[in-house]
Amino acid sequence: MRILLVASAFNSLTQRVFVELRDRGHRPAVHLMVGDEPLREAVRQHRPELIVAPMLKAAVPRDVWSAYTCLIVHPGPLGDRGPSALDWAIHEGADRWGVTVLQADEPMDAGDVWAHAECDLPRVGKSDLYRGEIADAALRAVLLAVRRFASGTYVPRPQHGPGWDVPDHTRPYLDQRVRRIDWALDPTATVLRKLRAADSQPGVLDQLFGAEWYLHGGHPESELLGKPGELLATRAGALCRATVDGAVWIPQLRPRRRPGGPATFKLPATLALGDLLPLLPELPPLPSLPTAPRRPAAADQHQEQGSWTDIDYQEAGPVGFLRFSFPGGAMSTEQCRRLLEAYRHALTRPTSVLVLGGGRDFFSNGIHLNVIEAAADPAAESWANISAMDDLVSQLLITTDRLVVSAVGGNAAAGGAMLALAADEIWCREGVVLNPHYRLMGLHGSEYWTYTLPRRVGAAAAERLTRRALPVSSASAQQLGLVDRVIPAAPGEFGREVARFAALLAAGPGLQGRIAAKKLGRERDEAIKPLDAYRTEELALMRHNFFDPDEPYHALRSAFVRKQPVRATPPHLTGVGEPN
Ligand code: COA
Predict the structure, then answer these.
(1) Alpha carbon 57 to its chain's center
(2) From atom 8 of ligand 1, which residue's Cα is the shortest distance away?
(3) Which of 281, 359, 481, 508 is the most exposed place for a label (fewest CB within 10 A)?
(4) What is the mean pLDDT of residues 486-510?
């Protein structure tokens, strides 16, 4: 079917709907909503059989929705209405939630229901849920709605009349007055709910050192205590702040934009505070890497107990698990170096399989564009960041004494997708979307991708993937050879499933033979073309991207971190219905 996807941005959910429709033989095209007239023009050009809006902040004009069936994805259960659906659900501590696919109508969210799906709402941040449980439920509902539409016989359910017994649940925009944290009164559970309901946007507006800041992200801390509101410690760039009955970790901050001033953007909290930080009481450094082997976490990483850290190493017999989880999947120079240090630590352990990743949200999205943008010399910081990333990737590539598995539980893009490719096996959660390309950021890319990508998919597919710059589903990635195993699991179950498969891999009879073959393969490849040669060639082009002020990277990066709205659908998304 010719389906036009209309969205405010080609965001994670729109990408997921796009790849899954394409996998099922449909011909989806994408139109980014920049106004009514361009939409009318896109509709005239594409002549869609169906319009689907996976994430649309504006209303579709009446003449479009009255001429074409137009399905709107609402991230709330039956009867829920309003612009802050998921925010309210988290704010109020709901355990179950849902997604409804409605026909566009007036008033908003009141159209006939084509499908809906329910899901759990574990205690994690909003954007993590949006890319996880909510995206899974949305796909179930969208695919069902598309099948129903294709049948030609399905009659959608009106949200009124005798057949409708669902209470109307319309809620307003969740504004900062409701989100505000009262540090003198709110217990940890409430503070976490408020932080998570505002994560990753818009954040919770708060005061620090006499200025207004948005707090982004929130994780529990179960040991540190202090005067409510007091800053207690830093770890991995995050701040630990006391509540009335405990403390929370806040990884990122963003200064409030001054009226008429430039857009502000998030940074690791300690970096954002900069010079203000020495004014704090001395903050105890906390180790982020337990040296003694522990059991792998049974539940997901965002458990309510324990202390938050972004890198964690655990063991179960012959399998090591090096988990990492960075906000937005962005990896700064400092984060890459800490992960490399942790990886080297993991290599000192007597394991035969080392699993990298395994968390719920983003695996990695490459170098940290916000930290680079904030640097005094962004070109030099870009260089430092890519060099640190390459050091990490090269360490993976030269690991020949054990098998390394990338466990990709969440989406991965650009250098972060290539980081995964440096492992021997790539296991991916079903529902993950990969973007193995750099072109949209104006970069040639490094992370040894010129070695690892063609090695996996062949030169022609590598060229196609990087040139077309389109997302790839986990199923397509497996067909292409980009991924070895697709694991059908809920986001919170992925880590457990990975642990199960890793134990089987470590116990398998062929393991020692595979490790020996891997060593020989690396020696053979090194003799054909040394790893250093790939790095030198890639970095020569990246040096140009970074240090030539006329290169598009600088403007693209600035627009990305400041979330500048698009002015038109980018050319790589128009007419993209063909298969990979
Ligand atoms: N550096 C800094 N922040 C990044 C990032 C990066 N490399 N990649 C993603 N993020 C942040 C986004 O700014 C966003 O922040 P928010 O939570 O404040 O909104 C968050 O991570 C999620 O990204 P978003 O773009 O909203 O998600 P998406 O699912 O719509 O798109 C990507 C995912 C990866 C396609 C898109 O984020 C992207 O293109 N990232 C840049 C990749 C890149 O070029 N890396 C550098 C070269 S290695």
Answers:
(1) 20
(2) 365
(3) 281
(4) 97
Strand blocks (E) in 90-130:
96-103, 113-120
Express each pLDDT in 427-462 by its tens digit: 999 999 999 999 999 999 999 999 999 999 999 999
123 C-alpha to center of ligand 1: Å?
Answer: 22
Tokens of 465: 């993937």
> Closest ligand 1 atom, CA of 415?
48
Residue nearest to atom 22 of ligand 1 (CA): 328
Distance 368 CA to ligand 1 centre (A): 9
Distance 125 CA to ligand 1 centre (A): 16
Pocket test for ligand 1, best of 55, 214, 365, 435 (most atoms within 8 A of CB): 365
CA angle 459, 14, 218 (to 5 degrees): 105
Q: What is the DSSP letter of 222?
A: S
Q: Reduce the DSSP state of residue 414 to 3 states and report it.
A: helix
Residue 31: phi and psi, rounded to 5, are: -130, 125
Number of neighbouring beta carbons within 10 Å of residue 93: 14
Q: Can you read off the two tokens belonging to residue 325?
A: 């989880």
The token duo for 345 is 């630590």
Interatomic CA distance for residues 360 and 297, integer angstroms: 13
Sign of the Cα torsion 492, 214, 220, 561 reads: positive
pTM: 0.95
Ligand 1 first shell, C-beta below 6 A: 11-12, 127, 200-201, 266, 328-330, 365-370, 411, 413-415, 435, 438, 441, 443
pLDDT of 136 above 80: yes
Ligand 1 atom 40, closest CA? 365
pLDDT tens by residue, 64-88: 999 999 999 999 999 999 999 999 9
Structure-block tokens of residue 344 = 């080297």
Confidence (pLDDT) at 305: 58
Q: Which residues have a Cβ under 8 Å from the Cβ of 523 and sit 6 or more positions away? A: none
pLDDT at 580: 52
What does DSSP say about strands 247-250 and 238-242: parallel, antiparallel, or unpaired?
antiparallel
DSSP state of 194: H
Q: How much distance in Å is there from the Cα of 539 to the middle of ligand 1?
A: 22
User: Would the pLDDT of 483 be above 80?
Assistant: yes
